[in-house]
């Protein structure tokens, strides 16, 4: 259907050709006392439906009766003809030399999707069928394109794709938001055996990994090891956070792209982050124009303009301290829910104010207070800030978080201890600072937040096929 309807001439070049299309019915209408059947068919290749006009003399016509409602699947073999209707240049005409084959019928009264739009909340409750909606179809295509853009960007810039583990004992962010992985609980439940305990505590030595193991919150520490051998690397995979967030920007399972560069400082890091983000947006503008037009029409008026602006100018860059000064000055006007002071972790209201109201474009903030950032970030000369950087985008807030890494073993150990963590738990990470340590930097881009930015979709639960959040692990 894409080949026909998304062609430059709207498919006119195919007029007269015999063509077969397969797909799912969006709508169906009978005309001329049941002698004609108009079907709008979609196959997921574009957010457009092809009109199929089935005449009663076509082979298979009689099998459609009562079965071909919205959601039915079929194959139609006919001829491309000029369409007399408005809105499309051509349609498929199925007459006596043509044929229709019904694969799977639908009982219209049971099918949850109808032609009229549905709320995004309702669509979430039918995550198995929602890819049939235009919204989720468009999101799925843009999502796949952005993944492709990611690999193209890093590959063409000399980065090596490294797979990092999903099960790990290390808490990269040190925030204690990890999902634990254990087999003992299930075994105990199944066999009715008590859990193994020593001194009133669960005995991990009897468990699968023989120590506490978790789903990773970030591939960073593992990818850093590879960076410190192979220079330019990135990982791209699912990450997990057991934060009990019910916001439109947080998921318990989300995908992250994490590049890591050796011999690079925080400014090199910002340059790559900005280039990468722009590459992705530009890629979607070129390869997914029909999808973006759908979002412009149905989700965010002005989306295309916003994306063009994002590409047109360099992102704003300022330090956390400069940003705090600005936010304090703006506070009376902005009326923030949480008052602004140096040392605070910025909320999304502050981040968005900077990007939307002050700069009207993405902003890179850097040199954050050390107390609100992770242990691995490089301590600055002032001893109170670290070489961290976040990219904040209009409508979303933080899309990227990154930093120059602490490459000095003594400082790293101090920071690990200060944060209440154990240096011995990070022995392998510390080794990199003992053997040929180098300055290096990296960042993590939340893939779903990139999709929100590119599509204008407002809830993160609608840009991942099967969103995971408190109470939701079905499908
Ligand atoms: O800022 P974060 O926590 O940084 C890290 O994990 C670093 N280890 C990355 C690195 O330097 N390699 O997360 C990075 C990004 C955020 O900017 C945000 O876009 C996204 O991941 N993110 C989430 N996205 C969806 N749901 C959540 N719960 C998220 N938490 C973070
Ligand atoms: Mg962050």
Commentary on this structure:
The chain has an eight-stranded mixed β-sheet with strand order 7-13-14-19-18-17-16-15. It has a five-stranded mixed β-barrel with strand order 1-2-3-5-4. Strands 8-12-9 form a three-stranded antiparallel β-sheet, with no helix packed on it. It has 475 residues and is an alpha+beta fold. The chain contains 13 helices and 19 strands. Strand 2 and strand 3 (50-55) form a beta hairpin. 31% of the residues lie in helices and 24% in strands. The radius of gyration is 27 Å and the shape is globular. The structure holds 4-amino-1,4-dioxobutan-2-aminium adenosine-5'-monophosphate and magnesium ion.
In a nutshell, what does this entry contain?
With about 475 residues, the protein is an alpha+beta fold.
SSE layout and pairing:
Blueprint: H1 2-5, E1 18-31, E2 36-42, E3 50-55, E4 73-82, E5 90-94, E6 99-104, H2 120-125, H3 134-156, E7 160-161, E8 167-168, E9 180-181, H4 184-191, E10 197-198, E11 201-202, E12 213-215, H5 220-230, E13 232-240, E14 253-262, H6 266-287, H7 289-298, H8 303-312, E15 316-319, H9 320-334, H10 348-358, E16 363-369, E17 385-393, E18 397-404, H11 409-418, H12 427-434, E19 440-446, H13 447-455
Parallel strand pairs: 3-5, 7-13, 15-16
Antiparallel strand pairs: 1-2, 1-4, 2-3, 4-5, 4-6, 8-12, 9-12, 10-11, 13-14, 14-19, 16-17, 17-18, 18-19
The structure holds 4-amino-1,4-dioxobutan-2-aminium adenosine-5'-monophosphate and magnesium ion.
Protein name: asparagine--tRNA ligase
Family: Belongs to the class-II aminoacyl-tRNA synthetase family.
Keywords: Aminoacyl-tRNA synthetase, ATP-binding, Ligase, Nucleotide-binding, Protein biosynthesis
